[in-house]
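Regression check, protoporphyrin IX containing FE case 151:
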Amino acid sequence: MTLDFLAPAYLWVKSFHLMAVMAWMAGLFYLPRLYVYHSEIPQGGGVEHERFAKMERLLLRAIMGPAMVAAWLFGVTLVLTPGVVSWTAGWWLVKFGSVLAMTAFHGYLAASQREFAADQRRRSQRHWRLMNEVPTVLMIVIVLMVIVKPF
Ligand code: HEM
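Current build output:
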């Protein structure tokens, strides 16, 4: 299903889609990095723990959350624009799958924010260094699929 009245706004919608994606990605790259350093701070509260907890909460709630919603809203508007997406196109199925994985990763970071805020350290520093690579790998796949459209 597509909506003809969306066609004239295609480039505007795509521009806002990319702006929202950039803000979302900035947070997805930075938040795991904050978790790497927060996991070094001993449990038991303290000034440093409070500072990291505040940075993580604001990054997630004030930037990443709204940016993810906007990326989805403008992205779905593009899907509903005539001639943009075919649900049998390989590039779109791989992109859409990777975007769902990116959204699940956002959810995992949000759940972990609540654990850190409660002064828990459930994962190792090495775990968060590895997690830091996830959005990079997904971004590479997404951008190559949507720009090159290889299949
Ligand atoms: C959140 C859900 C998302 C949806 C539903 C979505 C959907 C779309 C659609 C339908 C297009 C238009 C494709 C075209 O014009 O041929 C598009 C463009 C684009 N998307 Fe997304 N997208 C999403 C997330 C992302 C993410 C996370 C990234 C990057 C990490 C991304 C990067 C891009 C780029 C670079 C373009 C421009 C492609 C071009 O100019 O040809 N998108 N997106």
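Comparison notes: The pocket of protoporphyrin IX containing FE is lined by residues 14, 17-18, 21, 25, 71-72, 75-76, 78-79, 84-85, 99, 102, 139, 142-143, 146-147 (CB under 6 Å). Residues 9-147 form one domain. No diff flagged against the previous build.
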